[in-house]
Amino acid sequence: MTDIATDGLTRLSVQSGPRWRRELARAGRSMVAARWPLLALFILFVVAVVAIFGPAFSPMDPNRQNIMLRLAEPGAPGARGAIHWLGSDGLGRDVLSRLLYGARISLLVGICAILVGGTIGVVAGLVSGYFGGWIDDIIMRLGDIQLAFPFILLAIMFLVVLGPGVGNLILVLGIGQWVTYARIVRAQTLSLREKEFVEAARALGDTTPSIIFRTILPNIVAPLTVIASFNVAAVILSEAALSFLGLGVPPEVPTWGSMLAESREQLLANKWWLAVFPGLAIVVTVLSFNILGDWLRDFLDPRLKEQG
């Protein structure tokens, strides 16, 4: 009886605590039960640490060339007693160092492009759904026009005009994502603008911007979070594809996509490590984002709130 009472008091104290603490505990239980999202979160944490502190982990300068040690196999000795743990490329540059530096570009482009596209799409969707009428028609038709063209072709066209660069790449990829957010936010806003709590905010004299951004927006954060987690993976793939085509960032900036592009000439010579390691980094990172997105979709589902 004592154990039962103690357990009941513990559960009661958790339930009566702050809401964020209850949600955090529920998220932890859900992750541990699902297992795969916990592994995905750990992998993304490692990738983020590598991206932030890449120079500290890098054994060599990623752009230092050494023709005498070109195409060294993984584990081969390098200059000054160093070791090419993942081999070297056609110019004698260390693959591991370039892989670590490439993580920074991939995550930077992925997250910043989502912030750019998400901001534009959320504002456009809120305005379109709340006001409706001709404003809604104009915004949605602009989205339809953009969706009528293959995104990769539009990205290539703009990057050819603007030139390679991290800033241009983020801008192009961000603009390519806004339609998804605008459509989702518009649909949610249409269903929320006539709800009782919105009518109450109007009756209390709240201004239109306050109603849109302080009353409606907080209620659609959950689906936006899920979409953003999936879109980061899609943007990383797009960055790799554009870098593979030579349109992403300047050649001197190491990225996973440019490393794959540089490995094309050596694949026939059985230099497998030049393509396997950057390709594996892209696959693992994108898969981790997708697994985390799947878990977020289930965790934030209102029908499952009462469980766990």
Structure description:
- The chain is an all-alpha fold.
- It has a single domain (36-57, 94-304), classed as MetI-like (MetI-like fold), CATH 1.10.3720.10.
- The protein is 71% helix and 1% strand.
- The chain has 14 helices and two strands.
- It has helices at 2-15, 19-34, 36-52, 54-57, 95-131, 133-147, 151-162, 166-175, 178-192, 196-203, 208-216, 221-244, 256-267, 273-299; strands spanning 76-77, 83-84.
- It has a two-stranded antiparallel sheet with strand order 1-2.
- A hairpin with a 5-residue loop joins strand 1 and strand 2 (83-84).
- It is elongated.
- The model is unreliable at 1-16 (pLDDT under 50).
Helical coverage, percent range: over 70%
Return the domain count. Answer: 1
Number of extended strands: 2
Instruction: Report the portion of residues in β strands.
Output: under 5%
Summarize model confidence as the mean pLDDT. Answer: 80
Unreliably modeled segments? 1-16
Structural class: mainly alpha
What top-tier CATH class fits best? Answer: Mainly Alpha
Biggest sheet, in brief? 2 strands, antiparallel
> What's the CATH topology name?
MetI-like fold
Q: What's the CATH superfamily, by name?
A: MetI-like
What gap, in angstroms, lies between the N and C termini? 24 Å
